[in-house]
Design a protein that fits this description.
By secondary structure, this protein is α+β, with helices and mostly antiparallel strands. It is 23% helix and 35% strand. The longest helix is centred in the N-terminal third of the chain and has 22 residues.
């Protein structure tokens, strides 16, 4: 009986340790491909200027966007329809809109492959819904054409108007064309230089770089070394097939990265506050009050007597009120984890906009143990 009880206790202890391991964020392993990227293997941004035709009267008002008329005349002249220049100012193109077309060229994209493109209005078009993008060259940073885009635009929205009423769902001045561009030129992207392949960590971290080097050397031998906190140099086979297989093996190795830097991200435009699990608080006292200024103006009429020679005068009675809500001084206890931090901040009862000012003050006082980044 005692042996059976001891066995149950040992199994319970094993399950408890396993649960702690699973629940611990620092014990989660990530693949190298999620932590770093191969140097030189990157996306390239493409951009182009084009025209969207076939709109239902929702295109650019050409009197305010003369570049739409100019681009349309240039396109028509290339197609054999030449119009007199003196007639250009009288053309009204309600079914045409000038747009910017953007796309991302992935690494190792070959001619003939398709890309998704985003089409955005640059004029005063009301909607791109139902329009067709005319063949548009997409250029890279060097000015060379790498893809050609054309197709029907999908706009994830709807709008309707009648008289002075208007209803709109989602955004109508931008859309997307799935597989709307065809690659015309490939971008050379050599994998490594000479006998080495360089990995770049997504974020500078000396501890993670050391762990990554240990994981590679433990799996394939002493071939990796850390150059700094972000760059790792790995000796790889020089034959292309062997190098691809080697990189494929390395990028699937798992590494348990060190704890991330404590950081609080604040967006004052939207009132958003996001913090990671490494944020902690020290003991502090916080009092926060709201200051409001209200200015009200009420018109009053001063009317003379019936038989007097006076005139009726309208005057404004202005009332200015300044109110300040006094906030009680609250003691915020130290929090060793994110749950404690959230509980302490919720105890203040402040709205997101007030929380922005409180976090800045706590950071200045040294009570917030985290980097405060405002975006």
């Amino acid at each position: 009986m005692a042996g059976f009880t001891g066995k149950i206790l040992r199994q319970a202890a094993i399950l408890a340790c396993a649960a702690l391991t699973i629940g611990s964020p620092s014990a989660q392993a990530e693949r190298i491909k999620d932590l770093a990227s191969v140097q030189g293997v990157r996306h390239n941004q493409l951009v182009g200027y084009g025209l969207v035709v076939g709109l239902d009267g929702s295109g650019d008002q050409t009197t305010q966007t003369p570049f739409t008329t100019q681009a349309t005349l240039n396109m028509l002249s290339q197609l054999g329809a030449n119009l007199p220049l003196d007639k250009a100012s009288t053309i009204q193109l309600k079914n045409v809109a000038a747009v910017v077309v953007t796309a991302s060229l992935p690494p190792y994209a070959k001619p003939g492959q398709n890309l998704d493109v985003t089409v955005s209005s640059i004029g005063n078009a009301k909607s791109l819904r139902g329009g067709t993008l005319v063949m548009t060259p997409l250029k890279g940073a060097d000015g060379s054409v790498y893809a050609m885009a054309q197709g029907n635009i999908l706009v994830p929205g709807a709008g309707a108007s009648a008289g002075g009423s208007k209803a709109q769902i989602n955004h109508l001045s931008a859309g997307r064309i799935a597989a709307g561009a065809t690659v015309e030129r490939a971008v050379p992207a050599p994998v490594g230089q000479g006998p080495y392949v360089h990995y770049e960590l997504n974020a500078t971290d000396f501890g993670t770089a050391k762990l990554m080097v240990d994981a590679i050397n433990g799996a394939v031998g002493p071939v990796a070394e850390a150059v700094d906190g972000r760059l790792i140099r790995v000796r790889a086979p020089e034959a292309s097939d062997a190098r691809v297989a080697f990189i494929g093996r390395i990028e699937n190795l798992e590494v348990r990265p060190t704890q991330s830097v404590a950081k609080v991200i604040v967006n004052p435009r939207t009132g958003s506050v996001v913090m990671n699990q490494a944020v902690t608080l020290q003991n502090c006292a916080v009092a926060h009050g709201n200051l409001s200024v209200v200015v009200s103006s009420d018109p009053s009429v001063s009317q003379p007597n019936a038989l007097s020679a006076g005139q009726t005068v309208v005057t404004n009675q202005t009332d200015i009120q300044i109110k300040q809500d006094s906030g009680a001084l609250m003691n915020i206890k130290a929090g060793a984890n994110l749950a404690d931090v959230v509980k302490a901040l919720n105890a203040l009862g402040a709205n997101p906009q007030d929380l922005l000012a409180i976090l800045q003050a706590m950071k200045a006082a040294g009570a917030l143990r985290a980097e405060l980044e405002i975006i």
